[in-house]
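Q: A reviewer asked whether we had any structural model of the full assembly, not just the individual parts. We don't, so I'm hoping you can provide one. Inputs are below.
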Amino acid sequence: MNTLYAVLDHPATKWVILVFALVMPLASLLTWAERRQSAMMQDRLGPNRAAPTFLPGLKLKGILHFVADAIKMISKEDFVPGNVHKGLFTLAPLLAIGPVLVAFAIIPFGPTIFPHELGNVLDPTAPLAGEGAQNLAHSIRMQVASFDYGLLFYFAVLTLANYGGTLAGWASYNKWALLGGLRGSSQMMSYEVAMGLSLMGCFLLVGSLEPGYIVGAGASSKLSPSNPLNWLWLWQFPALILFTVAAIAETKRAPFDIPEGEPEIIGYFVEYSGLRWGLFFLAEFIEIVFISAVIATVFFGGYQVPFLDPDGFRIGGYMAEVNGQMVSTGGTVLKLPHAAVTALQVGAFGAKVILLCWFQLLVRWTLPRFRADQLMNLGWKLLLPLALAWTMLSALFKLAAINFGWV
Amino acid sequence: MAHAPVEEVTEGPKVLAVSKVSPKVRTIAVVRPGEGDVTYLEAARKGLGVTLRHFMKNFFGRRRPADKLARGEVVTEKSLIPWNEIETIQYPEEKTHYPERFRGLHRLMQRDDGQVRCVACMCCPTVCPAHCITIIPAETDDKGIEKKPAVFEIDELRCVVCGLCVEACPCDAIRMDSGVHAKPVEQRGDAIMTRELLLGLSKEVGKDPTSTATQGGEGPDWRDGG
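A: Here is a predicted structure for the entire assembly that you could use as a starting point for your response.
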């Protein structure tokens, strides 16, 4: 049993479970959700009737369309034009999808599980050792990797994903593809600056770059981290707006789909077909899921359910650490076993991610594409100065808060 | 010719200049969304409002009854859940109302004795703009008719559904009133409708295969005043 816990706690196991049980299905389903949602927004129905031939009644509102798409993409001819650089042409889709999957390592998708206490109510006020202590051994942290440099890792790794697009454009031996690739790199460079800076205020306020810590701590130690008022969306609202805009630009989708520009240049993957194109396509959707996960983690309390503390729902009080010992400040507690709390929190994280994905699709199917100059103006002349100013303001606030003991 | 007095424009775009030659030609100040607002926030908010409203209405709303949708009727009844705005008719399960003169698949008409009505006069393959009708004539025993089609084939993939063959037919032998669409096929050859298929379509769609028109060579002639 203990070996099982050790295996489950291994980063590789957690990464595989995260990617294949959560990210991939969600990204595949998004391909269907996008078409259905855009249809709903345009008074249409969208794809709603894919079903296996041996079970024609199994329509499920068309969810199975993603299976049909996958089969189509896998069985299509994988055409490689004559003049392409074969090596880079093959490498580019992998470079596009690899970093996005790696970046998921920093996202905490649930609380730490204590396998020996799953059936019991977790008591944070219990002493760590000795009489009345709970068995917290073999804990499984539901986060693949917890680095101190957390979100910086995300910025660094996601920049690599852009090489995929640029290399694809260059290796394709096609002027339109090259143009798309270059547009992609210029856009990424411009918006990464604003994206990184917009989160600086959050780092300053919380005092950590580690997503797990941000979720577990919240903005203020005077409120429970499960209190929605303690999540950063309230304390860092301008940062939320700035980061959302910059992050949507990073996904290279409308209204920031200059690298694709379907009516003009088609984009860096114009020479790709079959599963290679499918990888670019999937990478785009995984990026949507990832951006949603980051926004949920940083601004909307990650896996936290409103007012759900480790021992159950607590109304009217909060947990505070006094002299290294957690104490409850009172209030009514609806006690829940550890397993139920964990399930609720993982579910909450999934729900938040899905809602944010839905919002990104709503934006993508509403706003028309920016012109190249509008894009650059927005990035350099608006988002960057605003992000800088907000960082300064946050620093001032933090200074005042420390001096006057606000948080 | 006297010009009608130009009405004073009180609303609408701001007029910057009016042409001296024709007062209808004006230079107006165009206000584009986002002009003076580099954030495009106001325009984006408005747009998101519109799409969100449609999404909510169509996602949570009730679908209008299929028969009303098919007739393009507006549903006026009040209901607890508001009606959505989706106009799509789910084709194979639901069918829209076709007009009476809708041109569907061709069918060949029959004589009173069950013989094919066509006399292989070659009018329809001649007039057909898509060259989709193939007729190979053969002699008949009935000397009053002279010819019958040994082969009568219509390539439904080529047909442009113009209805000229029906117009051209002098003896009401070919009609397009079956009311059914061309069937999906897996091989192109399967889309060619043979004489037997064309004759059998009447029974398939439940229509009378005989014509009310007077059969050629029989009965009183109009020239005799009959």
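A: Points you may want to mention in the reply: The longest helix of chain B spans residues 41-60. Chain B has a mean pLDDT of 84.
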